[in-house]
UniProtKB/TrEMBL annotation:
<dbReference type="Pfam" id="PF13561">
    <property type="entry name" value="adh_short_C2"/>
</dbReference>
<dbReference type="InterPro" id="IPR036291">
    <property type="entry name" value="NAD(P)-bd_dom_sf"/>
</dbReference>
<dbReference type="InterPro" id="IPR050259">
    <property type="entry name" value="SDR"/>
</dbReference>
<dbReference type="GO" id="GO:0016491">
    <property type="term" value="F:oxidoreductase activity"/>
</dbReference>
<protein>
    <submittedName>
        <fullName>3-oxoacyl-ACP reductase</fullName>
    </submittedName>
</protein>
<comment type="similarity">
    <text>Belongs to the short-chain dehydrogenases/reductases (SDR) family.</text>
</comment>
<keyword id="KW-0560">Oxidoreductase</keyword>
<dbReference type="InterPro" id="IPR002347">
    <property type="entry name" value="SDR_fam"/>
</dbReference>
Amino acid sequence: MASNLNGKVAIVTGGGRDVGRQIALALAADGAAVALNYNRSSAEAEAVVGEIRAAGGNARAYRADVGKYEQVKDMVDGVVRDFGRIDILVNNAGLVINERFVNTTPEQWAAQIDVDLYGTIHTCHAVAPHMIKQNFGRIITLAGDSSRIGENGLAIAAAARAGGIALMKSLAKELGRANVTANAISLGLIETAHSDPEFLAANREKIVRQYPLRRIGKPEDVAPTVAFLASEGAAWITGQVLSVNGGFCMV
């Protein structure tokens, strides 16, 4: 185990699979104790906890629907009770429904906004007082390039994630005096174990042509940037949007 984040405690929402799993493993490898949030699959979350512990790290899983503030508040209270503090918040949990805007429904809007925007608001609101009290914190929110340049079929997810980016910029200004940074990471397409294999098989060549690095991203491509923003090396970086996207979007 490295000691870059030794003594720090991190919450990773949606940490049981794919990008969240890799983030949790990276933070733990750098020495942080990890509170791994999940909503549906306790088996996936506990498997990641097991991986971290097997490597000599410290981790626990916490169930909460980030779209429900009371559940988030209970989770944060539990993390503070179990670990004594919260230093790092990674807003990774997300919901994307790929559908043309004119075909979407209010129920689909609410489902995505609850997780992608309200989920980020809820976690930040519950965690911020603890970070202010200890005069230290790192808030890192994952977004997508659609939230900055738009994308067919992703109008609602893009709008919700763009709200998360705006929240990071505002919190950077509000919380900076308490030594709390707030940044976003904008992702290109990330291929995971839960990606649609038929869609990728039919469209991979066309998709890859849009990326200067000529490949789709992997969860392992994201975690190092999160770990960096959580570290002392990023102590003077706040209110920024860092791209991890293979060059797809350059803004």
